[in-house]
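Look over what follows to help learners.
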Amino acid sequence: MNTKFYRISKGKIKIIAAKEEDAVKLSEAFDLIKNTDRVEYDYLQKRLKSVIVSSRLGSTNEFFMPERIWLANRSVIVKNDVSWLASLLIHEAFHATQFKNGKYVKSLSKLEPLALRVQKKFLQKLGESGNDVDRVQKNKYWKEMTGDKASSIYFRQLFKLYTDK
């Protein structure tokens, strides 16, 4: 893992990405949230510490609690527009509110619908229909996420590098 990473700060949140254009795109997503819903942006400042984007391709991402770090493969950033990324940041950060006393208080099957609802609400504020959120719930996305064990191992390596500094 000798990749150079680029860093951008958005308030208290650090964006760290293997590609500069990915860090910039995420920065734009944070700006969109700030300009659309200042309350939600302020929540993000409390819910997220860092966003780390790997150089790996793939649709997998993972939220680490209690550290408040979201890790994503590069394809998550490249294949989605700024509006979707902004809604995804809100979705992932919402998981921090679902975390209590060292563990998630509900099963994943109960956590995701609530996070998707928050995500969809933000998309609607942008004038989007929210159909993308419905599509994610109904397609093969979850199978891809749970079937990608290599990314999960890689995320743990990145996480360890980040937290061991």
Observations:
- The mean pLDDT is 82.
- The domain at 6-163 is CATH 3.40.390 (Collagenase (Catalytic Domain)).
